[in-house]
């Protein structure tokens, strides 16, 4: 008994230490705000978006001009040349390059939003898992206290010959099994603690208050509305759509490559011997002479890339629809079980345990019946907390897919 008491104290101490500080509890909303501000994945996505926006004015600007300086010595004539040349793409090419860069930046924006949603969904899942671990420890703690009371009762009855010794041994065995489960839960609690701190960009051992209470969250939209919501607000889908739009612009630009680019060259001349000045103006035209193997294949490349983007969009949409259906089914199942466990199974199990306790005290039922009633209540309470957490996790995954609360 002394060994079990020491082991229970060692398991309960970390939770007690975390629960101090005037009963402070970790708020999910505060954790989400901290993740948005400090998570490295979110911050990297934001910077990639800023980088993409900075590309747009660059590709819409004319190439840098060239300054020309020269000297020619043909005795007795000596000439000094100076001037400037400017490359000018065919009209429309710079505009199309700007539109392609704009689509890239818009895709990066959607990737940033999708990353933010994915990080928050992971944070919520870890938070709900941690909440379930704390609830499980509380349930097992209550069970342990009752088992110790049962052990004392069985010991008293055994001492007067009203019960078998195996009742006492069975109670002690169940207490030891509970301590083993509590050890596993403590390890899981520490792992989830470190995972949440990682998402928040904290050190793994930084303090984290126990999670605050969670409530059952009903669906805001009908199941039939979720598919339409995917097309309206999902950054995952919108990002791939921007890639498809970029493909359309790439095809238009590839077709423009059939048209020539120009280079304007203006030079001033000074003849030292004749003491005369002059100028020279030239127009250079880049002729797409090898269009059969260059420009034509460039168009084929752009068309194939656009078709690949379209197929990627279709595949992604089908995958997201499947994930919506799967998570919706999980949420609906959990909702039914939560209501059934809360309203019927758990209350009935408590009544059964109370009846078994009263009957065992007067010798009307055996110890095994009493023990089964307690363990049944324990498992039903654990299942209730598990299904509540699974329901909220399914909604978190749906929000990560859809881009808003389902």
Structural summary, described in words:
This protein is an alpha+beta fold and 406 residues long. The chain has one domain (2-402): Outer membrane efflux proteins (OEP) (Up-down Bundle). It contains nine helices and four strands. The model is unreliable at 1-22 (pLDDT under 50).
Q: What is the secondary structure topology, with strand pairs?
A:
Blueprint lengths: L1 H22 L4 H11 L1 H20 L6 E9 L2 E12 L4 H67 L5 H35 L23 H11 L1 H22 L4 E11 L4 E11 L8 H67 L5 H36 L4
Antiparallel strand pairs: 1-2, 2-3, 3-4
Helix pairs in contact: 1-5, 2-4, 3-4, 4-5, 4-7, 4-9, 6-8, 7-8, 8-9
Concise description?
This protein has 406 residues and is of the alpha+beta class.
Helix content: over 70%
Classified by CATH, the class is: Mainly Alpha
Strand content: 5-15%
SS summary, helix count: 9
Structural class: alpha+beta
- Which fold name corresponds to the CATH topology? Outer membrane efflux proteins (OEP)
| Spatial strand order of the main sheet | 1-2-3-4
Labels describing this entry:
406 residues; alpha+beta; Outer membrane efflux proteins (OEP); 11% strand; disordered N terminus
């Amino acid at each position: 008994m002394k060994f079990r008491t020491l082991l229970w104290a060692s398991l309960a101490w970390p939770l007690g230490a975390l629960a101090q500080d005037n009963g402070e509890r970790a708020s999910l909303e505060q954790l989400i705000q901290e993740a948005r501000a400090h998570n490295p994945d979110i911050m990297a996505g934001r910077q990639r978006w800023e980088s993409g926006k900075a590309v747009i004015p660059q590709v819409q600007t004319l190439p840098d001009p060239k300054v020309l300086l020269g000297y020619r010595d043909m005795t007795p004539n000596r000439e000094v040349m100076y001037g400037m040349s400017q490359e000018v793409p065919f009209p429309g090419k710079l505009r199309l390059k700007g539109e392609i860069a704009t689509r890239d930046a818009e895709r990066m924006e959607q990737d940033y939003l999708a990353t933010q949603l994915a990080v928050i969904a992971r944070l919520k899942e870890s938070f709900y898992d941690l909440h379930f671990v704390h609830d499980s420890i509380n349930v097992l703690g209550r069970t342990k206290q009752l088992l110790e009371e049962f052990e004392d009762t069985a010991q008293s009855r055994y001492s007067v010959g009203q019960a078998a010794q195996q009742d006492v041994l069975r109670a002690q065995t169940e207490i030891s099994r509970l301590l083993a489960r509590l050890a596993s839960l403590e390890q899981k609690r520490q792992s989830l603690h470190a995972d949440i701190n990682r998402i928040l960009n904290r050190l793994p051992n930084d303090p984290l208050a126990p999670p605050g209470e969670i409530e059952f969250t009903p669906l805001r939209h009908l199941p039939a509305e979720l598919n339409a919501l995917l097309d309206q607000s999902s950054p995952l889908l919108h990002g791939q759509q921007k890639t498809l739009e970029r493909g359309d612009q790439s095809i238009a630009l590839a077709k423009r490559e059939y048209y020539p680019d120009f280079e304007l060259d203006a030079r001033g001349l000074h003849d030292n011997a004749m003491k005369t000045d002059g100028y020279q103006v030239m127009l250079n035209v880049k002729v797409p002479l090898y269009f059969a193997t260059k420009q034509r294949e460039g168009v084929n490349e752009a068309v194939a890339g656009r078709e690949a983007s379209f197929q990627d969009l279709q595949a992604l949409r089908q995958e997201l629809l499947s994930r919506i259906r799967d998570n919706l089914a999980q949420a609906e199942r959990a909702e039914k079980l939560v209501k059934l466990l809360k309203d019927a199974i758990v209350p009935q199990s408590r009544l059964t345990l109370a009846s078994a306790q009263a009957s065992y005290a007067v010798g009307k039922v055996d110890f095994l019946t009493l023990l089964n009633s307690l363990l049944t209540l324990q498992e039903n309470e654990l299942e209730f907390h598990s299904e509540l957490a699974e329901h909220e996790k399914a909604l978190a995954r749906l929000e990560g897919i859809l881009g808003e609360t389902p």
